[in-house]
Amino acid sequence: MPPRTVKFRAATVAAVLALGTILLAASPQSGAAAEPAPVTDYCQGQCDDILPPGENGNATLVDILGNKAFGTHPAHSDDQLDRYNGLVAGHAGLTDRKLTDFFNDASFGVPKGQVESVTSPRDDVTITRDKASGVPHIKGTTRYGTEFGAGFAAGQDRLWLMDLFRHIGRGELTSFAGGALANQGLEQQFWPQAPYTEADLEAQVEYIRTHEGARGEQAMADAQAYVDGINAYREKSKKGRYFPGEYVLTGKMDAITNIGEIQPFRLTDLISIASVVGGQFGGGGGGEVQAALSLLSAQQKYGVAEGTKVWESFRQREDPEAVLTIHDGTSFPYAGKPATARGIALPDAGSVAAEPLIHDRTGSAGTDRKAPVKAPAALRKAQGIYDDGVVPEGSLPGSGAQKRGMSNALLVSGKHTAGGNPIAVFGPQTGYFAPQLMMLQEIQGPGISARGVSFAGVGMYIQMGRGQDYAWSATSAGQDITDTYAIDLCEPDGSAPTKDSTHYLYRGTCTAMETLERTNSWKPTVADSTAKGSYRMQVRRTNYGIVTHRATVGGKPVAYTSLRTTYRHEADSIIGFQMLNDPAYVKDAASFQRAASNIDYAFNWFYADSRTAAYYNSGMNPVRAAGVDPALPVKAERAYEWKGYDPAANTAAYTPFAEHPHSSGQDYYVSWNNKQAKGYAAAGFGLGAVHRADLLDDRVAKLVEEGGVTRASLTRAMAQAAVTDLRGEQLLPELLKVIRSRPVTDPELNAVVQQLESWRAAGSQRRESSPGSHAYTYADAVRIMDAWWPKLVEAEFRPGLGDGLYEALTANLATDESPAAGHGPSGAHSGSAFQYGWWGFVDKDLRRVLGQPVKGPLAKAFCGNGDLAGCRDALLSSLKQAAAEPAAEVYPGDDNCKAGEQWCSDSIVHRPLGGIAQKSVHWQNRPTYQQVVEFPAHR
């Protein structure tokens, strides 16, 4: 039993006893119960939210064909998109009264006259939808009925999406939705991170039920009711012939005869969906093999001692100049560099090879070969809608340390606000899809009272939103909860092992690796024309995790494995979410932090009520053995295992509550996936002196200094940052200082420099000259910066680092992530930008060359080898090249944009997960779902 569970039980005896009264009302046979007491909304009209493009994520076949033929949209599928987009132009004149021009009123309930529909799938629950946005307001008189209603509403709004994601989690996407190359890539990306047998999934359900006390039992009862509600809608929509049209287009259902089946949902499907969601947004660490390769490259260039020093300066585990969420000096030491490292297992140079995943390819496997079917005339408008995949390539993040972090938060203490109450503007930045991965809902029932968003398919509880007198949200934290082990290979007969051996030494015994497989096959459909094909995915599982690479260490064959604490515990976080939804549990900042501590994934949690703004960093942080370096692979020996490690259920000792970064009442908080606190070591590269969170921190600090902060002024700060180019605001001043250290004598080049100076003076924004113009005010300066940045980074660093080390470090951290970039973890048109890049490296190096003070400098000077004149020459030469690069090369075009279309290249595209497409909107680096809250009262 993990220590966290023990602590939870000991700390919440009273809550568990109180929960017993709720359990009595949880039976499906309980029927209708007494009407619950009316819920008081303490936000008093000062809570707002938004989730584009719209609440309705289901479309019938007729809806899809209408969208393809005429551009029509089902009701409430796009009615939040224009308001979300409108903030770009509207934030400058924003007032509190105007907030609902750009956000929904997030008050509880539906006012009289605003009811659009009322559905009662059982006699103990109603689903009321409002006219404004179609959001379901679920109100139950029993616990079972409430959760049944939540599942039914999820079916109404996200049935096809939930089906997609349970198949992604199970590694069965191509068999379900077609063999498009992007589908092949997606299941190959996600399944190896969380490969399970059906027995494994069932064991996770049982673990929650039997290891988390009364709350665990309640959670699984709630989950079962939720699944029952989904299945009730599934059956009803099939009989009524209003199920999502994608089932027809992918060959699952016949539109004429209604023959076919939408497979029933099971509790284990929720585990597989949770593995996708949690792995995508709540993971942390990993990537130690790639880190080891760049360390080896540094050592090969400079020698072991000097090379290690250079590598550590780029690794920036504890950069003293990094922007912090907890900025009052409080330290939370975790995962730092040990004084004397033990057990490091660096590979021999040139020996590393990735573990093969795909075997036995047939037909179109590994290709994009098409063989279109002859579609009925009525369906031809929708033919090929999934030829590029149901989730287009690049829409979801990669694996390893450099994942999409996303999400931001701005909170100000009541001491500094006009109303005397804390204000929060926060939300998760989860990409842009149609429909969204999340859905808005309000749930009111015994033991539950909240409105907000939940990821479709795991929406038993609100995951981010508001309660009666408090609101909460999260950003991805990414602290190190994943380690890489080097397991010694062996042969059971005692013969010499090779890198291909399938046995390994576990605590002295030669042990067989477990083989997990998925065999998928597909054939062309109306939706996906990919030709018939198949393949087998195979991973090897060990007591130290999943095999990712093979190598030699000191000449001996090893396999590198990836072990994360949340493996086999994909849905344990349900307990924390249950608490966050329970008004009897969360009553203040302290109880919120305790609730958040029961969420196992790596998230930064933020809270605001009428009295306090607060923060807590959640995650199953393993207690590592003394001397183990979390940044590098470690030998798979008992001396270097996590403390208390038990591979059977993947449990260990975890750092206690007090050692997680947490705070209450700080003057303000900002988070944009930056460093949490002093001492809390970065799990990957990139948390240095310049970070996109600086765009928030500088603005909020100024508001706090001025005082009288309002909901509108804090929203404006977020919105300004959302259209600002980080490189222009934070790095261009230093670049210009170097360039202007002597006069620029080339008239044409001087004009280019003046363009950049004008753009910087105006705020370095990527913003339309007027709403709808689709042209930036400083379009040429933006083009020059986009072309220049990768060139200047290379000109600054490659000569000094050399080709090998430069390329190894750029494999750890990409140099750029502009809005128009079709590379990196986010892909093009994804909104999120400037998370990953060499901003901090450039900043420290240029300040050194300029003779300015630098805390935590790079180990060497690189630009011009430290000479100002040489640095200036390198920057000007790369700038001249960039200025000459035409827009058609800077913005090469794609399926959404023609070459040279700058605004379009930046624009946000809601990637269609179903048959309904949405228009492109102006780029914003902003949460997808966002709340603006200020509670004037408290229970």
Descriptive report:
With about 950 residues, the protein is of the alpha+beta class. The chain is built from 24 helices and 30 strands. The strands form five sheets. The protein has a ten-stranded mixed β-sheet with strand order 3-4-5-12-13-14-15-23-24-26, covered by helices on one side. It starts with a helix and ends in a 6-residue tail after the last strand. The N terminus is likely disordered.
Overall 3D shape = globular
Structural class assignment: alpha+beta
Number of helices: 24
**Secondary structure: helix percent:** 25-40%
Strand order of the largest sheet: 3-4-5-12-13-14-15-23-24-26
The average pLDDT is 94
Strand content is 15-25%
Give the strand tally. 30
Q: Uncertain runs with pLDDT below 50, 5 residues or more?
A: 1-34
